[in-house]
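Researcher: Here's the sequence for the chain we discussed earlier.
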Amino acid sequence: MSTPLGKLTTPFSLVVDAVLVIGFFLYIYSLVASHVPSRDPQMVLLWGGLTSACMSGVFWLAIQMFRVVLKAQLAAKKK
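Model: Thanks. This is the structure I predict for it:
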């Protein structure tokens, strides 16, 4: 069977992930806010924020999957 990969996250990696996700959220919000079909600033904030939050969640999952795959590939290369 497969061997355990060990600890995949550290406090430093969590901070790096948080900074990346927050930066991604702000970038996506700046893109999608102009596409909200409303002139009400509260609606733009709500729907732009919800859209950005959803996409940021997918980005976070992609970061985690990348970390696991990279760790597995590096472990396989050492054998």
